[in-house]
Amino acid sequence: MTARSRQQSMEENRSKLIAAARKAFALKGFSAASMDDLTASVGLTRGALYHNFGDKKGLLAAVVSQVDAEIALRAKQIAASAGDDWNRLLAEGIAYIEMALEPEVQRIVLLDGPAFLGDPGHWPSQNLCLAETRKAVAAMIAKGIIKPLDVEAVSRLLNGAAFNAALWVAASDAPEDTLSKATETFRALANGLLVRTAQD
């Protein structure tokens, strides 16, 4: 087997394991998902799992990263038609919160992710979101849309508010009702960052 085909085989195995784990974690949750059943379902062994991810928690991190990156991209796509820079940023945050109603997102990213992987602030997917928010905020401060505040502080608080609102929705006994409260309040808090003109 050439180095190229070996690398390709490893990538295929990694993709198979992530897909199988994503399905198992969404259906059963991280704790209840059996690694033997998961690996057997794609014709691989525990050895392949350990080789690619280190352990079960490493596999969860890969799945969380994939799902979180997908919902961030979907939120951006949903927000693309929201009008100006500010309304796109606001719509993106609200779309992210709304996805907390989706069972896969709830279980993998918002419930099991923080419970087993710790602070989402250390997740690569959340750091990518933060970097995007930072760019958007810096541009809007330069244009005089957002008040001249610290870019890092604004970006972290906006992202943190959206993520924590999504956590609240995911853990709620009445998620639809909680979503309504969360998005209304997120919008009100975020609007406090805007520069107000004499006409406002």
TrEMBL record:
It comes from Izhakiella australiensis. This is TetR family transcriptional regulator. Keywords: DNA-binding. Residues 11-71 form the HTH tetR-type domain. SUPFAM superfamilies: Homeodomain-like (SSF46689). GO terms for molecular function: DNA-binding transcription factor activity; transcription cis-regulatory region binding. Residues 34-53 bind DNA.
